[in-house]
Specification:
The chain is mainly alpha-helical. The protein is about 65% helix and about 0% strand. Helix 1 crosses helix 4, helix 2 crosses helix 8 and helix 3 runs antiparallel to helix 6. It is globular. The chain starts with about 40 loop residues before the first helix and ends with a helix.
C-alpha cells in the first residue's frame, strides 16, 4: 500500500549556514540559490518548497499525478462547456471572464487535491518537525498534530483524529474559498463594469450580479463544508480502488469518481447560490435602462 508512506515520518535535518559569499552561486547541492539578487532568493525558495511538496506527494502515492491531472482536466472541460453554452456567440468576447472563472477553479482544485494527499520524503520530514514542535508547545495545537492527510487515510488513527482532520481541512478550505471567491468575483465585476461603461451597446449589463463580499462568504461555506466533505469521500473511494483493483481499473474508478464529483459540486453550488439569493439586482442594468 503506497499510501502508508505518509506524513508520520521522522523529523528532518536542518541545513546550516553555508558561509557563502552572497554571490549568485550554486548552492551545496549544485542548484542556483539566487543569493545576492533582491527578491530572487525568496522566489527560488518558494519554488523549491512547492516542488518538494509535489515530489513528496508523488513519492507517497505514485498515482497522485494521475489524480490531480484528472481533476484539472475534468473541471476544465466542464467550465469551458458551461461557459460556451451560457455565453454562446459572446464566448470569445467575454474570454477574460471565462479565464477568470477557470483560473479560480484551477486554484481551488489544486488546493483540494494537494492538501488531502499523503506525503513522504522531505515534505513529510517538514510536516513531522512542525508536528513535533506543536506537541512540545501543547494545548490546542498539539491535538491537531499528526493528523491523517484525509479522513480515510490508511493508518492507526482514532475517530477523534479523523474528525479533527475534517475540521482542520474545513478551516483551510474556508479560508481558500473566501479568498478565491472574493478575488474571482471582484475580477469579473470590474471587467464587466469596465466593458459596459466603455461600450454599453456592445456589452449591455446583465440584470443581476454577485456582490463581492457575499460571494466570498458563500464560497467560504461551500468549500469548507461541501467541497471538504466530498473530496474526503473521493479519497476514500480511491483508497479502496487502488488497494483492491488492478491499476487500470483503479484509475477508471478514480476518473469516474472525480468527474461525478465535479458535476455534483456544480449542482450543489447552483442550489446553494439560489438558496442564499446570491444574485442581486445590478445597478448598472437600471442605469443602462434609463
Amino acid at each position: 500500500n503506497n499510501n502508508n508512506n505518509n506524513n508520520n515520518g521522522g523529523g528532518g535535518g536542518g541545513g546550516g549556514d553555508d558561509g557563502g559569499s552572497g554571490k549568485n552561486e550554486p548552492g551545496d547541492n549544485g542548484e542556483f540559490s539566487g543569493k545576492g539578487i533582491p527578491g530572487v532568493a525568496a522566489v527560488v525558495g518558494a519554488w523549491m518548497l512547492l516542488t518538494s511538496e509535489f515530489a513528496g506527494r508523488v513519492e507517497a502515492d505514485p498515482n497522485f499525478t494521475f489524480k490531480i491531472g484528472a481533476e484539472l482536466l475534468n473541471d476544465t472541460a466542464i467550465i469551458l462547456f458551461v461557459n460556451a453554452v451560457a455565453r454562446k456567440d459572446r464566448f470569445f468576447e467575454q474570454l477574460d471572464q471565462v479565464l477568470c472563472h477557470w483560473s479560480v477553479a484551477m486554484l481551488n482544485d489544486i488546493c483540494l487535491v494537494c492538501l488531502l494527499a499523503p506525503v513522504a520524503g522531505v515534505a513529510a520530514q517538514r510536516q513531522a518537525a512542525a508536528a513535533a514542535k506543536a506537541v512540545a508547545v501543547g494545548g490546542l495545537r498539539a491535538r491537531f498534530a499528526g493528523l491523517p492527510a484525509h479522513m480515510f487515510m490508511a493508518g492507526n488513527f482514532t475517530l477523534e483524529q479523523k474528525f479533527l482532520c475534517w475540521c482542520q481541512k474545513a478551516v483551510l478550505y474556508s479560508v481558500i474559498g473566501f479568498c478565491s471567491g472574493v478575488l474571482g468575483t471582484a475580477a469579473v465585476n470590474v471587467s464587466s463594469s469596465a466593458k459596459t461603461r466603455a461600450d454599453p451597446e456592445r456589452n449591455p449589463p446583465l440584470p443581476e450580479y454577485n456582490p463581492t463580499l457575499m460571494s466570498g462568504l458563500a464560497w467560504l461555506l461551500y468549500m469548507g463544508i461541501g467541497s471538504n466533505t466530498r473530496y474526503q469521500m473521493v479519497n476514500g473511494v480511491e483508497r479502496v480502488a487502488f488497494n483492491n483493483l488492478p491499476v487500470k481499473g483503479a484509475k477508471l474508478v478514480s476518473y469516474l469518481t472525480r468527474i461525478t464529483n465535479c458535476f455534483t459540486g456544480g449542482t450543489v453550488w447552483v442550489w446553494w447560490a439560489d438558496k442564499i439569493h446570491l444574485a442581486k439586482p445590478n445597478p448598472l442594468y437600471e442605469e443602462y435602462k434609463k
